[in-house]
Amino acid sequence: xxxxxxxxxxxxxxxxxxxxxxxxxxxxxxxxxxxxxxxxxxxxxxxxxxxxxxxxxxxxxxxxxxxxxxxxxxxxxxxxxxxxxxxxxxxxxxxxxxxxxxxxxxxxxxxxxxxxxxxxxxxxxxxxxxxxxxxxxxxxxxxxxxxxxxxxxxxxxxxxxxxxxxxxxxxxxxxxxxxxxxxxxxxxxxxxxxxxxxxxxxxxxxxxxxxxxxxxxxxxxxxxxxxxxxxxxxxxxxxxxxxxxxxxxxxxxxxxxxxxxxxxxxxxxxxxxxxxxxxxxxxxxxxxxxxxxxxxxxxxxxxxxxxxxxxxxxxxxxxxxxxxxxxxxxxxxxxxxxxxxxxxxxxxxxxxxxxxxxxxxxxxxxxxxxxxxxxxxxxxxxxxxxxxxxxxxxxxxxxxxxxxxxxxxxxxxxxxxxxxxxxxxxxxxxxxxxxxx
Length: 437
Ligand SMILES: *Cc1c(COP(=O)(O)O)cnc(C)c1O
Hints:
By secondary structure, the protein is of the alpha/beta class. The protein has helices at residues 3-8, 46-49, 58-69, 82-93, 109-124, 141-144, 168-171, 174-191, 219-230, 281-284, 299-314, 317-338, 367-380, 404-422, and strands at residues 25-29, 32-35, 40-43, 102-106, 128-132, 160-163, 198-203, 233-237, 261-264, 275-279, 342-348, 351-359, 364-365, 382-383, 385-387, 393-396. It has a 7-stranded mixed sheet, sandwiched between helices. It is globular and about 60 Å long. It starts with a helix and ends in a 15-residue tail after the last helix. The relative contact order is 0.16. Pyridoxal-5'-phosphate (PLP) is lined by residues 108-110, 113, 136-139, 204, 208-209, 237, 239-240, 265-266. One of its GO terms (molecular function) is pyridoxal phosphate binding.
């Protein structure tokens, strides 16, 4: 264990820790991070997708330096600033049409989803919210309240109803998964409560922390039709898989739907803290001083986000997510044919998941093997975490700038890690202190 990692525990609380291996970082460039031991490791998490352009991207450095060298205040609460206005104009130009009214800025996916949950119930007067089992919408009281991830310790909202996210792999087919959730929804509306009590349905266009679940074809179109029929607002949480990562700018585009409200975070700031909500004017102007934190609308973070959006366009990074994501996916499919531990490979673009199972027929989750695999991969030079309600899905969210060569190199490291775990070369004791989630 490195010196920095050991020292950290003497000064920093564990409460925000979600640790999988003893990594201590002193720098980074592109898809690589530098450890305090001087080692370069390939980063296939990008801090859970936040470092969307990789580390130290020159466009972000330039934008941040410019904004900081003549700083237009620190907040948009009590004054307008140009980076926020430019960023809002840019986000509105990217659609969808239904949502293109006004933009709210926050620091994180959590404060953004919390704001939406408060705003939709206050503005519509409807008390209920729908979300999915396994959904991660944030770590604050109000965002945990509308989430369904079992690792969370916060209480759910009184008006929240969780619906199973269709899991094609577990159900045996996409059709079975889709039909089960749709009939569950219709039964809820017929027997539990009237649909016109529901203000909004929070969806993840790909359920990332719940296990990188890709919705079956036609599923979200059917959900959208139900929402329209009953006047329920459709909220697309694009925090992890949006902004080019899926191969489209918005991940909901894969489902052919148009949400009323879109939530952005993580990769929007390219590593700086900023989130955004885009929605219709009537909702987004619900009330002044309704949801604010002092340095919301920080011009330095907004300038970074604008640079992210411009760079994604200029460098065609959504196209790169499709192309390089396809190469990564093909390499993972090849691994799956050689490693019995791999039960399923799924995702879109550079949002990919690999589900590990101890038995292909029963699909029994291989959580211990997932923990050992990411630990071993780190030792061999690859940063990768796992997600899923059963803690057995390796998550791939590398920088959108990742190259084909880096994709192949990462998979070669994973190949070795899986082999070492299968051969029993990694002792359980390494996991002490790395419980993950
Ligand atoms: C990470 C995440 C959030 C919360 O974002 P924070 O920046 O951690 O507050 C919300 N929704 C989704 C889908 C996420 O992946």
